[in-house]
C-alpha cells in the first residue's frame, strides 16, 4: 500500500492519469545548482549552528573542524550554501551573539586557520558560505565597551554606545520604558569606580549585549572594515543579525502602550493590511534610518567579485514592509518570518505566499522561505501546537500543554514539501532534515538561554531547538563526538533519528529532504513561477511551478488528487487520494 519516497521508478500514477513513466523523470535540462550569477536568488541555504553541529575534540561543543569533517553530508543532502551562526570570539552569554572580537574565532570553535580550511573545503564541494554578523550590539567584553566604561561621561568612547543619565531625582529610573527582548528592562545602570551609581546603557537583549550607536560615523567605519575582513577571506555573504533594530528613533522616546510588548516580531501577526508606507510601529524596530546602512554595505560587497550577498534578519511585517530591506541597492535577501509564523491553515498560507511573491517581486528580489531556525520552536513540534505559544517562550516540562508530536512531524514534512517547491530561496535549519522535534524535557539545570535567566524561568527560551545533532544511532552522544559530552543533553529517542539510521530508510525524513532537493534542482523550481491551482477545496493549497503541480492538504479528511504522475509525497500514498496533512508533487 505504500509508495516509497526515494525511487522514481515506483512512483504511483493516480487513477485518472495515464502518464508515461518518462513524464515523472527529473528534467536534466533545468538550471543546475545555484552556483552561478546571483546564486542567492534560488539557493537552498542550510543553517549550521556551530556549537551543536559536530564536535571534533570531544569537549561537548561543536566546532569548525567538526563542520569541515561533515561537509560532504551536506553536499549529499543537496543544499547550495551554508550559513554559520556566530563563531567569533565571545564570552558565549548569548551563544556567540555577543561578540568580543569580530575578527577572530573563539577558541571553543577553533582558529582562523580552521575557518579558512572549512571555507576552502566548502568551496571545493561547491557550497557557498555565509557568516553571521552581529552589528546591533557587541559583547560587554568587547574592547570598545570596556574603553567606554573606562572613559568619562560624554566622551567619544561612550558615544559608540547608548549611555544616558537616568530619569527621576537621583537618576535612578531608566532613561525610557523600553524592554529587553529577553525580558526585564532594556537599560542597566553602571556603578562608577568610587561606588556611586552612574549612567545607564541600552541593551535590547541581555545586559551583556550593549547596543551600538549607529548614528556614530566611527561605528559605521569599523563595520565596513569588518565586512572586508571576512570578504577578503572569501566568504560569500553575511546574515545580518537584528537588522531591523540597529537604528533607534531620535531622542529614544518611550514606547507607547500600543507598541509595548518586548516582542521580537515587530508588528506581529501576518496578513495584516499593507502598512508599508506607514511609520514604523516601534521606536527601535524597523526605523527608516537603517536602510542607509544597508545601501552603504551593498557598495562594500559590490566591490568584490562572485556575487556576495547580504541576508537580513528583520522581524517586520507585512511582507511589503519587509521588502524595503531588499530594494535593488540594499540587501539581497531577508528572512520571511511572516511565512514562518503562518499557522497550518490553507487560506493563511495561500495569503502569505501571495503577499510575499508580490512584495518581493515588486522590488525585483527573490522571496525567501523558512520554517525553522535557532530562535524558534522547531517546526516538527510547532505545527503540532494549537495553543498560544509566543515567540521566544519556548517549551518546557511545566508548559501547560503538550504539542501533538504525531501531527507535528506529519505537518512538518508536508510543510517542507510545499516550501521547497516555491520559487525563490529557502532556508533550512540543521536537524530539520532528520525531523528532529523541539526538546521539551531539558532539565532546568541544563538551560543556557539568557531568556530563561532574565525571566526567572517564566519563559523557557530557545535551548530546545539547539540540542546537538545525532549522527549515529550508537556511539557516544549519538556520534556528535567520541566522548559523549554534550552541552545540552540529547533525548534517548534521538538514536532512532540519527543520520545513519535515516540514510538507510527510504521513508525517513532525511530521504524525503534529499529527494525534494534533487527534484527541486533538476526541475529548476527555485527559478520558476507560481501559478495557483484552484477548485480543490478550502483546505487545499495547490499551485503549479515548472511543470510540477504541488498539492498540500491542510484539512482533516482526504481529498482527491489531481491528475498526474506522483513525483514524490510527504507520506506514502495509496490510490488517488491525498490524506490529511500530506503534500505531493505531480508531473504533468
Ligand atoms: C538574533 C539572533 C538571536 C540572538 C539575538 C541577539 O535574533 O538570531 O539568536 O539572541 O539576535 O543577538
Ligand atoms: Ca569541540
Write the topology of this structure:
Elements: E1 44-48, H1 64-77, E2 81-84, E3 88-89, E4 101-105, H2 112-124, E5 128-133, H3 143-150, H4 156-159, E6 163-164, E7 187-191, E8 197-202, H5 217-233, E9 237-240, H6 290-302, E10 309-312, H7 319-322, E11 333-334, H8 337-340, H9 346-362, E12 368-370, H10 379-382, H11 405-419, E13 425-429, H12 450-454, H13 499-503, H14 509-522, E14 531-532, E15 540-545, E16 548-553, E17 559-560, E18 565-569, E19 577-578, E20 582-587
Parallel strand pairs: 1-2, 1-13, 2-5, 5-9, 9-10, 10-11, 12-13
Antiparallel strand pairs: 3-4, 6-8, 7-8, 14-15, 15-16, 16-20, 17-19, 18-20
Bound molecules: alpha-D-glucopyranose and calcium ion.
Describe this structure in words.
It is built from 14 helices and 20 strands. Helix 5 (217-233) runs parallel beside helix 6 (290-302). The protein has 588 residues and is an alpha/beta fold. The two termini are 23 Å apart. Strands 11-10-9-5-2-1-13-12 form an eight-stranded parallel beta sheet. It has helices at residues 64-77, 112-124, 143-150, 156-159, 217-233, 290-302, 319-322, 337-340, 346-362, 379-382, 405-419, 450-454, 499-503, 509-522, and strands spanning 44-48, 81-84, 88-89, 101-105, 128-133, 163-164, 187-191, 197-202, 237-240, 309-312, 333-334, 368-370, 425-429, 531-532, 540-545, 548-553, 559-560, 565-569, 577-578, 582-587. It binds alpha-D-glucopyranose and calcium ion.
Amino acid at each position: 500500500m505504500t509508495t516509497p519516497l526515494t525511487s522514481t521508478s515506483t512512483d504511483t500514477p493516480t487513477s485518472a492519469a495515464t502518464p508515461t513513466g518518462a513524464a515523472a523523470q527529473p528534467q536534466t535540462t533545468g538550471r543546475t545548482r545555484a552556483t552561478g550569477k546571483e546564486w542567492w536568488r534560488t539557493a537552498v541555504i542550510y543553517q549550521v549552528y556551530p556549537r551543536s553541529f559536530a564536535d571534533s575534540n570531544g569537549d561537548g561543543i561543536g566546532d569548525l573542524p567538526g563542520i569541515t569533517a561533515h561537509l560532504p553530508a551536506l553536499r549529499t543532502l543537496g543544499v547550495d550554501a551554508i550559513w554559520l551562526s556566530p563563531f567569533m570570539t565571545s564570552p558565549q552569554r548569548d551563544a556567540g551573539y555577543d561578540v568580543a572580537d569580530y575578527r577572530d574565532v573563539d577558541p571553543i570553535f577553533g582558529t582562523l586557520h580552521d575557518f579558512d580550511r572549512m571555507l576552502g573545503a566548502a568551496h571545493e564541494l561547491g557550497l557557498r558560505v555565509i557568516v553571521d554578523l552581529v552589528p546591533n550590539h557587541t559583547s560587554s567584553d568587547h574592547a570598545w565597551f570596556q574603553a567606554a566604561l573606562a572613559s568619562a561621561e560624554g566622551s567619544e568612547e561612550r558615544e559608540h554606545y547608548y549611555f544616558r543619565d537616568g530619569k527621576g531625582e537621583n537618576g535612578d529610573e531608566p532613561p525610557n520604558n523600553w524592554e529587553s527582548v529577553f525580558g526585564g528592562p532594556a537599560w542597566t545602570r553602571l556603578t562608577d569606580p568610587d561606588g556611586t551609581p552612574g549612567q545607564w546603557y541600552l541593551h535590547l537583549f541581555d545586559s551583556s549585549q550593549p547596543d551600538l550607536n549607529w548614528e556614530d560615523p566611527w561605528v559605521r567605519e569599523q563595520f565596513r572594515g569588518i565586512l572586508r575582513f571576512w570578504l577578503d577571506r572569501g566568504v560569500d555573504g553575511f546574515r545580518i543579525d537584528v537588522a531591523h533594530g540597529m537604528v533607534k528613533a531620535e531622542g529614544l522616546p518611550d514606547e507607547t502602550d500600543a507598541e509595548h510588548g518586548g516582542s521580537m516580531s515587530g508588528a506581529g501577526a501576518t496578513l495584516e493590511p499593507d502598512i508599508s508606507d506607514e511609520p514604523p510601529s516601534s521606536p527601535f524596530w524597523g526605523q527608516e534610518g537603517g536602510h542607509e546602512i544597508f545601501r552603504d554595505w551593498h557598495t562594500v560587497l559590490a566591490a568584490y567579485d562572485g556575487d556576495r550577498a547580504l541576508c537580513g534578519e528583520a522581524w517586520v511585517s507585512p511582507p511589503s514592509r519587509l521588502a524595503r530591506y531588499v530594494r535593488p541597492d540594499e540587501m539581497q535577501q531577508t528572512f520571511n518570518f511572516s511565512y514562518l509564523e503562518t499557522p497550518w491553515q490553507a487560506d493563511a498560507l495561500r495569503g502569505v505566499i501571495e503577499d510575499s511573491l508580490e512584495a518581493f517581486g515588486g522590488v525585483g528580489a527573490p522571496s525567501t522561505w523558512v520554517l525553522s531556525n535557532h530562535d524558534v520552536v522547531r517546526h516538527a513540534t510547532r505545527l503540532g501546537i494549537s495553543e498560544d505559544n509566543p515567540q521566544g517562550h519556548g517549551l518546557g516540562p511545566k508548559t501547560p500543554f503538550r504539542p501533538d508530536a504525531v501531527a507535528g512531524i506529519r505537518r512538518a514534512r508536508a510543510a517542507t514539501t510545499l516550501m521547497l517547491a516555491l520559487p525563490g530561496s529557502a532556508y533550512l535549519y540543521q536537524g530539520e532534515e532528520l525531523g528532529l522535534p523541539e526538546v521539551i524535557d531539558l532539565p532546568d539545570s541544563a538551560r543556557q538561554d539568557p531568556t530563561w535567566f532574565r525571566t526567572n524561568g517564566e519563559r523557557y527560551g530557545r535551548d530546545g531547538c539547539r540540542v546537538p545533532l545525532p549522527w549515529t544511532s550508537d556511539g557516544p552522544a549519538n556520534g556528535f563526538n567520541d566522548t559523549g559530552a554534550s552541552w545540552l543533553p540529547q533525548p534517548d529517542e534521538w538514536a532512532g533519528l540519527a543520520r545513519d539510521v535515516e540514510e538507510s530508510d527510504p521513508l525517513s525524513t532525511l530521504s524525503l529532504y534529499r529527494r525534494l532537493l534533487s527534484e527541486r534542482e533538476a526541475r529548476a523550481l527555485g527559478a520558476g513561477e507560481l501559478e495557483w491551482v484552484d477548485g480543490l477545496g478550502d483546505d487545499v493549497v495547490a499551485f503549479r511551478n515548472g511543470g510540477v503541480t504541488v498539492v498540500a492538504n491542510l484539512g482533516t479528511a482526504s481529498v482527491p488528487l489531481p491528475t498526474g504522475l506522483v513525483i514524490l509525497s510527504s507520506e506514502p500514498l495509496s490510490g488517488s487520494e491525498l490524506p490529511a496533512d500530506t503534500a505531493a508533487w505531480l508531473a504533468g
